[in-house]
Amino acid sequence: MVDLSRRRLFTRNVVRDDAVRLPWLSSPEQFTDLCTQCGECLKACETQIIIKGDGGFPRVDFTIDECTFCYQCAEACPESLFTDQQETPWQARAAINEQCLAQQNVECRSCGEMCDSMAIQFRLEVGRVAQPNLDSNLCNGCGACVAVCPTSSINVSNRVA
Hints:
metal-binding; alpha+beta; PSI_iron-sulfur_center; iron; 15% helix; 6 strands; iron-sulfur
């Protein structure tokens, strides 16, 4: 078993325990034990957001594009790592930080325009530009809002708020 948290000693990069791995993982806790790092999921991803992460294990990079929940990564995997497509893909949700242009009183609605689930709505405020309001109950964690954000103010993680 690979303990990714112990790798922090030898790297400057922060290993995030809440990073999004892959959708429909049957057991995220046993992912490093069962994944053979074959790379089939990387090849199968239609938006090419699955990359080799820490230790060569696949992870999702939303700065590239969004997850379309096509299930091709699961179908390509030779191991039994994934649940049925009818299950919830993951518990990942987006979060918007204080770097957001709208919070700096600069008009920007890029994230809301990309959000198909309409989890990001903008509310009008007196004397300010419209402010983003993220409904985590509507967010499916697809990451469509991440790549379009000009200030990298949005992060998708498994952290439960």
